[in-house]
Design a protein that fits this description.
binds adenosine-5'-triphosphate, 3 domains, about 475 residues, binds magnesium ion, Rossmann fold, six-stranded mixed β-sheet, Oxidized Rhodanese, domain 1, VC0802-like, about 40% helix
Length: about 475
């Protein structure tokens, strides 16, 4: 027997306000992105119907829930509703259908009926509301102010759509309709949220990290940006650029006073980003700065930064409070990864200037070697974000435990044990290395996969076959219990 099919009605947001031409183009892009999303998430056998004013996506019943979750993450979609579709001849057909579909749902509850109508009919919307409401009142109680169930009916000529749910989409504009920018990312909460806000308005992104902390900084940032893109970048193929900034930082630290490090470092990032943007042909960069959040982002310092910007800098978080940023990070799914990164990778300088003098900044910059910056950009590593090759992280991470490997649990003694693992707490690791067998492969597990990453790298450098379990114990225990 053929599987039942379900229909999802998709409401398009702001793009319906565009001129016909623009709207056509935007809708086309939305369709592309939407299909890319459904394909990427393994929804099979779907059908998309474009009826200009709205879209319909038909899926096998067993995949309705998943399809909803995916469609909620396609920019340009204002909301969606699972609908019952019917063709009718008379108003009585609507009444009967409503009873059949919703008698059980409104039973013993309060409800209201709301009708929207397009086309020529021998009845008004309010006639349908009264008739259907009257029939359903045999089961539930009408409450127009604050109903528990809202039965909505959209009538178009001889077709009617019934629904009781409106699921919010992200809104915004289809990703890619507003061109492309380069987002500066560093693994914290802010840059991922800033990137999301730009994408919401249709701007596709490539990403750049100025690496200050070696492979761990890359890992943290990649984890966050990949998490972001797995959920939201449908229809685009972002490139990730890693620029090794360690030589630049070293130069800065030897030639300039500590209180100017943060600000000048940021200006150097702006310059390098502009250089890269020009090279890859994008017109602007995006950052996660917000007025007054930290010393390099005081209002005065932002103006001093802006002076170093050779391409336009967009700062979608400019007016956001930290709490608003955190809330949004939770909503878009990057909170947990960013929190794990923040917990582990802290880079701070003491007593930074909060009201930099631009003249002084320029003088200090004179002392730096400008070639280092050009060289760093030139020697960057660029790779597709989605298919980042394992060697960008030095082949240290694994996502399963290979046959014959010994699990080394490097968490604290108080943590509940992992079955079959040997416990060596990270702070005792150095002394324990002598007891390890170089002929055995080891998989190190810590809380979230950062400390184990560092320790496994050290072991590899000592000649061991050591790996780090991506995602750490949180990931492992979740998968053990579901196996
Ligand atoms: P995040 O945005 O990752 O939370 P943060 O708030 O710790 O970073 P700040 O030093 O406050 O970073 O910098 C603000 C913005 O500057 C970041 O949002 C990001 O866009 C950019 N930025 C900072 N450090 C880097 C870096 N190492 N590489 C690329 N961009 C960076
Ligand atoms: Mg910040």
């Amino acid at each position: 027997m053929a599987e039942e099919r379900r229909t999802l009605l998709i409401r398009l947001g702001e793009l319906t306000l565009k001129s016909k031409r623009v709207r056509q183009r935007f809708t086309l892009r939305l369709l592309q992105n939407l299909k890319a999303a459904l394909d990427a998430e393994g929804i099979r056998d779907y059908r998309v119907i474009n009826e200009w004013s709205r879209l319909f996506v038909e899926v096998p019943e067993g995949q309705e829930k998943e399809a909803r979750e995916v469609l909620r993450r396609v920019f340009g979609i204002a909301s969606l509703s699972p609908v019952e579709v019917m063709y009718f001849r008379t108003i009585r057909d609507l009444e009967n259908f409503a009873e059949q579909m919703y008698a059980l749902l409104v039973d013993g509850r309060t409800f209201a009926v709301r009708v929207k109508r397009v086309g020529r009919h021998p009845f008004r919307s309010i006639d349908v509301e009264r008739l259907v409401g009257g029939r359903l009142a045999r089961y539930g109680t009408v409450d127009l102010e604050n109903p528990e169930v809202l039965v909505e009916i959209e009538i178009r000529e001889h077709q009617a759509f019934f629904f009781v749910e409106r699921i919010a989409g992200p809104g915004g504009l289809p990703l890619g309709t507003e061109g492309k920018a380069l987002a500066l990312v560093s693994g914290g909460f802010d840059s991922a949220v800033a990137a999301w806000l730009m994408m919401k308005r249709g701007v596709a992104l490539d990403f750049v990290l100025f690496n200050l902390g070696g492979p761990l900084h890359l890992k943290g940032t990649l984890d966050v940006v990949q998490t972001l893109c797995r959920r939201w970048c449908y229809g685009t193929d972002p490139v990730f650029h890693e620029v090794d900034f360690r030589a630049v930082v070293q130069d800065l630290h030897t030639r300039v006073k500590e209180n100017y490090w943060n600000l000048i470092l940021k200006r150097l990032m702006y310059r390098a980003a502009a250089r890269l943007a020009r090279e890859i042909g994008v017109p602007a960069v995006v950052t996660g700065e917000s007025i007054g959040q930290v010393s390099s982002q005081t209002f005065v310092n932002l103006t001093v930064l802006e002076e170093a910007a050779e391409v336009p800098v967009f700062r979608p978080l400019l007016t956001y409070d930290k709490q608003e940023i955190i809330d949004l990070a939770r909503r878009i799914g990057t909170y947990e990864v960013s929190a794990a990164v923040a917990e582990y990778c802290q880079l701070v300088a003491r007593h930074p200037v909060t009201r930099a003098n631009p003249q002084r900044v320029r003088e200090l910059e004179e002392r730096l070697n400008p070639e280092l910056l050009a060289r760093a950009v030139k020697e960057r590593r660029s790779f597709p974000l989605r298919a980042a090759p394992a060697e960008v992280l030095g082949n240290v991470e694994v996502d399963t435990v290979p046959e014959g490997a010994v699990i080394l649990d490097v968490r604290r003694r108080a943590d509940p044990p992992i079955p079959g693992a040997r416990r060596i707490p990270a702070d005792r690791f150095r002394e324990a290395v002598a007891t390890l067998d170089p002929s055995v492969p080891y998989v190190l597990v810590c809380e979230s996969g950062y400390r184990s990453f560092e320790l496994a790298r050290d072991l590899q450098q000592k000649g061991f076959r050591a790996y780090s379990l991506k995602g750490g114990a949180r990931w492992l225990l979740k998968h053990m219990s579901s196996a």
